[in-house]
Amino acid sequence: LRTQAGEEATLVAGRTARMGAAGGIEFEAAPASGRAAWQNGMLVVVDGSLGEVVAALRAYRPGVLRVSAAAARLRVLGTFPLDNTDLALQALADTLPIAVQRYSGGWMVAIDVQS
Question: Phi/psi at 5 (nearest 5 deg)?
């Protein structure tokens, strides 16, 4: 991993990393349940933001996946399949006050708070 300031670090198995408020890299142990779920093709979210969930799903979906700032702040609890992001998006739409709009045959997806 490398920050914009040039700080470098190696991410090892069993650890997670994130950018800290000061711009440095912060490490912590990865939760065992999340790690096991990921290895089985599932994303486990416990009080995460919809923005974080969408960021995780982007790596498993072709095209563009966008979320509005208002929708990104919504809190999420659930388990979502990584091999079927359409199903994951439907589960989110079924449980959160969001609208999921698909364009160009699903290549572009926009998520916003439901009005």
Answer: -80, -5
